[in-house]
Design goal:
heterodimer; A: mainly beta; B: elongated
Chain lengths: ~120, ~120
């Protein structure tokens, strides 16, 4: 059984979930409920990456399938860059949002103008 | 542990989390963990026109390391201070009652200590 905080993520589609063994805490915000859901990730460098969560670990490293980056700019509409199967290191992750597909479909990305998100400053 | 317990008691309250990239997210506190990662439900970004990046997100997981502030509901905190903790490094003076100190004893003890006793 893998030890806690190890970066041994399995790269097949049936990812195991790693738990710390000192989990006497009542509340654990696992990302289990988001596995196989489409999520929107905000990274520390201000990027927004959308994809299907396939796996995660205690360090919040994640495996994202069918991912694409949404680039916001003030001059043109939202651009989508296809990325594919990605691992994002937990150090670099800020927010993981559960994407509501209906809401997302109702958005007109070509009309959205926004400044890119600022990078995280500790 | 202290803040983890504090946030556990706040579950169900409406909070606004301000992140270190200046993004502010309002939502209902769903859960918290040992790293102070926060899960919010029914989320909306505070300045939605400036930050349309999360328009289609209603529930989110916020990594503890990117939280700058957690703004609590005004009546959710007991503001009357009865007991407090003061970090030693910020103390300038501790004023003692005049008759609470045996000055001569203190002098001797201090000299002894300074001598390396």
């Amino acid at each position: 059984m893998p030890t806690k905080c190890s970066m041994k993520l399995l790269l097949n589609y049936h990812c195991n979930l790693f738990r710390t063994f000192n989990c006497s805490m009542a509340t654990t915000t696992g990302l289990e409920s988001l596995v196989d859901q489409i999520i929107s990730v905000i990274t520390n460098d201000g990027r927004n990456i959308v994809g299907v969560l396939k796996g995660f670990d205690q360090a919040t490293n994640i495996i994202l399938d069918e991912s694409h980056e949404r680039v916001f700019s003030t001059k043109e509409g939202v651009q989508q860059h296809v990325l594919g199967l990605y691992i994002i290191r937990g150090d670099n992750i800020g927010v993981i949002g559960e994407l509501d597909e209906e809401l997302d479909a109702s958005l007109d990305f070509s009309k959205l103008r926004a400044h890119p998100l600022k990078p995280v400053v500790h | 542990m202290l803040f983890f317990s504090y946030f556990k008691d706040l579950v169900g309250q409406e909070v606004t989390v301000e992140l270190k990239n200046d993004l502010a997210i309002r939502g209902t506190l769903h859960s918290v963990d040992q790293y102070l990662n926060i899960k919010l439900e029914n989320t909306r970004v505070v300045d939605q026109d400036k930050y349309p990046h999360m328009l289609s997100v209603r529930n989110c997981f916020i990594r503890g390391s990117v939280v700058r502030y957690v703004q609590l509901p005004p009546d959710g905190v007991d503001l009357s201070v009865r007991n407090c903790f003061i970090r030693g490094s910020v103390v300038r003076y501790v004023q003692l009652p005049p008759d609470g100190v045996d000055v001569d004893l203190l002098h001797d003890a201090a000299r002894r200590e300074a001598r390396g006793g």
